[in-house]
Amino acid sequence: MKADKVLDAKGLACPMPIVKSRMAINELEGGQILEVHTTDKGAKNDFPAWAKSGGHELLKHEKENDVLKFWIKKG
């Protein structure tokens, strides 16, 4: 999946991956896609809730080794 912006939030603990993602998605236009890479285990629950509450769409998520990857479409 092609992302318009990639955010490396690996090694950051909650709530920093969400904080950094909020800042990154604010730089995008509606409909653009933010790809986030994080090692925070809580992100599995945090990102779907954050995307929904912000009016964004979580398109996809996957785990690759110890890295969780999320693709979020800006609402």
Provide an overview of this structure.
A four-stranded mixed beta sheet has the order 1-2-4-3, with helices on one face. By secondary structure, it is of the alpha+beta class. It has one domain: Translation Initiation Factor IF3. The radius of gyration is 11 Å and the shape is globular. The chain is built from two helices and four strands; from the N terminus they run E-H-E-H-E-E. The mean pLDDT is 96.
Keywords:
2 helices; 75 residues; TusA-like_sf; Translation Initiation Factor IF3; 4-stranded mixed sheet; alpha+beta
**H-E string:** EHEHEE
Oligomer: single chain
CATH topology: Translation Initiation Factor IF3
Count of β-strands: 4
Largest sheet: spatial strand order: 1-2-4-3
Assess the beta-strand content as a share of residues.
25-35%
CATH superfamily: TusA-like domain
Distance between the termini: 17 Å
What class would the helix/strand composition place it in?
alpha+beta
CATH architecture: 2-Layer Sandwich
Fold blueprint:
Elements: E1 5-9, H1 16-26, E2 33-38, H2 43-53, E3 57-64, E4 67-73
Parallel strand pairs: 1-2
Antiparallel strand pairs: 2-4, 3-4
InterPro entries: TusA-like, TusA-like_sf
Protein name: Sulfurtransferase TusA family protein
Family: Belongs to the sulfur carrier protein TusA family.
